Each structure stands twice: as C-alpha cells, then as structure tokens.
C-alpha cells in the first residue's frame, strides 16, 4: 500500500498557489499509483 502524506495545507479561497500545490499532490498520487492521501492538520484556512 502506498500512502502520500501532507499536513497543514491551509487553503484559502483566493490562494491560487496553494490550490496549485494541492493539484500537484493529486497528480503525484496518480502518477505513483498512491492508494491513500492523508492530509493531517488544517486543510482550509479560515479566520
């Protein structure tokens, strides 16, 4: 089983750089046939 782990992504509505980083992680997951993506900590950044 292959696991891709990241943490504290803190995506904001208008933060293209972080959305692009998340999209890149998903592309890596597909390319390496990852079975599970684990995002620990905060996915979204809100006040």
Describe this structure as you would to a colleague:
There is one protein chain. With 47 residues, the chain is α+β, with helices and mostly antiparallel strands. Helices cover 34% and strands 21% of the residues. The chain has one domain (3-40). It has a two-stranded parallel ribbon. The longest helix has 16 residues, at 16-31. It is flat. It starts with a strand and ends in a 7-residue tail after the last strand.
Nutshell version of this structure?
With 47 residues, the protein is an alpha+beta fold. It contains 1 helix and 2 strands, in the order βαβ.
Strand order of the largest sheet: 1-2
Number of strands: 2
* Distance between the ends: 36 Å
> Low-confidence parts, pLDDT < 50 over ≥5 residues?
none
**Shape call:** flat
Instruction: Report the sheet-strand fraction.
Output: 15-25%
Structural class: alpha+beta
Measured on Cα atoms, how large is the radius of gyration?
A: 11 Å
- Global mean pLDDT: 92
How do the helices and strands follow one another from N- to C-terminus?
EHE
- Number of helical segments with 4 or more residues: 1
Helix content: 25-40%
Lay out the secondary structure.
Elements: E1 3-7, H1 16-31, E2 36-40
Parallel strand pairs: 1-2
